[in-house]
Amino acid sequence: MNINKMDLNLLIYLDVLLRECNVTRAANKLNITQPAMSNGLKRLRDLLSDPLLVRTSEGMKPTEKALRLKPIVRKVLLELEEALQPEADFNEKTSTRVFRIMASDYATSTVIPRLLNRLREHAPGITLDIMTPSDVTFHDVEAGKIDMAINRFEELPQSFHQKSVWFDTFVCMMSSNNPIKNNFDIDAYLQAQHIWVSKTGFGIGVGMDPTDVQKLGWVDEALQELDHKRSIRVFTRSYHTAMHLALEQDLIATLPKKVAMVNSKNPDLVILEPPFDIPEIELKMIWSPLLHHDASHIWFRKQVIEVANEHKIKNN
User: Fold this and answer.
1) Are 234 and 251 in contact (CB under 8 A)?
2) Would you say 42 and 34 are in contact if contact means Cβ atoms under 8 Å apart?
3) DSSP 8-state secondary structure symbol assigned to residue 270
4) Could you list the residue ranges forming a coiled coil in this record (predicted)?
5) What is the pLDDT of residue 197?
6) Where are the strands (E) in 208-306, listed by range?
7) SS3 content of the chain, % helix, strand, coil (to 5)
8) Which structural domain range is residue 60 located in?
9) What is the count of structural domains for the chain?
10) What's the CATH code of the domain at 53?
11) Do 55 and 146 share a structural domain?
12) Domain of residue 182, CATH code
């Protein structure tokens, strides 16, 4: 193939086609007609001497050559878009920019309030648009539609930029009327009823299975290492809900310390160290390579890290 015959539009068509595996959806993504998209696919097939997408009983599937090309084409287009981003100065005092952030319930409870206070003082015209993990996808972040995602991530696309915000330990929260608070050991923990709370990554969550330890997360995996299993009475994806339910006399919430400290002054709740070791969790912020060199984004990332560092110093 002669690379001179490959125009930029065809690369863009190929990128979207390989992500959507559907001509109609790809056309809608690019705001072009389906015949135009079909014509683009035909030209690509001719240029690359490969069908690229083939029809199967499960719909259109990419060929082996298409699968090899997919990450390469994505990388080329991202680097090109990044190189073409206009350079501009940024003045936080006068800016009216809206920063769109996907923040987990944990991040919203801990980082966001402190970040908002900082912005109120240093950048009064800036607005935050906070979204939940169910509102966005990795593609939204990669395309720069979301400025930043703050969450705990197990796996990330290699193209993303990322930075650690902080590490956090776990504590147990329960009602001040819970009788086990005075003799809180591993036996008391296992005999109690528990609130499970967690939500990581992106996308709409699915129902939990109490027997599937691998999906239950850090606390239950740590218990499994000790050949123990707790009795989970209720599952929730909201830390605020978990802390509210912990007011019930017979329930315990095991949750990250920084979010538990939000309710540390509530006389109806007590916070105790877990009677077994639980690995630390890491909160990260991630962003698109398209935004990495943007002046306003560089400034914003710095604010997040400075807020996190202030919080760590305050709580040491």
Assistant:
1) yes
2) no
3) E
4) none
5) 87
6) 231-236, 251-256, 269-272, 281-287
7) 45, 20, 35
8) 3-84
9) 3
10) 1.10.10.10
11) no
12) 3.40.190.10
Please give the DSSP secondary-structure letter assigned to residue 265: T
Q: Sign (positive/negative) of CA torsion 205, 259, 117, 292?
A: negative
pLDDT at residue 78 in the model? 82
How many C-beta atoms lie closer than 10 Å to residue 171's C-beta?
A: 21
What are 281's two structure tokens? 């969790």
Q: Which of 77-91, 100-114, 205-219, 295-309 has the lowest mean pLDDT?
A: 205-219
Whether 125 and 249 share a structural domain:
no
**Sequence-ordered list of residues with C-beta below 8 angstroms from that of 69, at least 6 positions apart, any chain:** 14, 18, 48
Sign, Cα dihedral of 31, 9, 100, 86? negative
Query: So what's the pLDDT on residue 200?
Result: 56
Q: What are 233-264's pLDDT values in tens digits?
A: 999 888 889 999 999 989 999 999 999 998 98
| Residue where a domain stops, chosen among 84, 110, 137 | 84
